[in-house]
Amino acid sequence: MFALAVTVVVTAVALATGAALFPVGPVALLSGTTVSLADGILRLLFVTLYVAAAMAALGAIGLAISP
Known about the structure:
This protein is mainly α.
């Protein structure tokens, strides 16, 4: 739960900072294609969940090898 909470907080702060500093609109991907804002936020949600799962797995490994 902590890994999910941390990644959601970091994502929310990054979105708020980005919205404050840059115009909000279509999202340009690294491949050069442009997707809608809703699709960009959905992709960001999937990335957030992926990072949370990776952090939880790392925590589980650390717990497993701790004495």
